[in-house]
Amino acid sequence: MSIQHIKQLLLLVLSGSVVVTVTLLKKLFPNAKIIIDRFHIVQMLNRAVNSMRTDLMNRFDHNSKNYKLFKRNWKLFLKRYDDLNCTYQFYERSQREWVTVEQLVDQGLQLADQDFSKAYWDYQRLLEVIDDPTPSKTKIFKQCLTEVNQKYPGSRSKASKADKALLTLYDNLIPVITALEPQYCHYTNGPLEGINHKIKQIQRTAYGYRNFEHLKARIYLQTYLGKDTRSSVKTA
């Protein structure tokens, strides 16, 4: 069977990148559904929001409470808002008060400018669609992308980092929306990305390997033999 024949038979292409040339993929795989992996859709907007948080943080004095709020609690701004604890209070040293994690995020949003606030809630809307890709939620998200595109009819140079990420999704609207359809939403490269991350961490902690067989052996040991010993350890 030739490669061309295989390309004709292929029915599904899962792209590991949001920035793809859909026309090229369609030409290579004419009968396939093009899907952009949900993992990378979330990752792109996640990075944009985090970068905007850093820019916002650096506007404040480095010794101020506002700076420390965004610096110390950066992970909270990337979590799902519905998952933030709104009942358990703890003493936050940087703010010198008893607060919940939800209150910390709310305080940050009150200090934020309009661009960051919009980016944060657009990100939350995306997470909600990814978690539960119902037709109604998908329609709302599609409308959000359309509104962002209409906001920049000419040049996109003045768009915020989050809006640029959303515009990229709009430019690849069909494969993005296809990824949210019920029959395709379970396809993901997430496990493969996890394996790649594990291998990179092994290389980093070992400062490289001269012998490739030793690297393979350590990957095998940590992946398969280390499961039972670390199964009870919670990860962030």
UniProtKB/TrEMBL annotation:
This is Transposase IS204/IS1001/IS1096/IS1165 DDE domain-containing protein. Residues 23-219 form the Transposase IS204/IS1001/IS1096/IS1165 DDE domain. Coiled coil: none annotated.
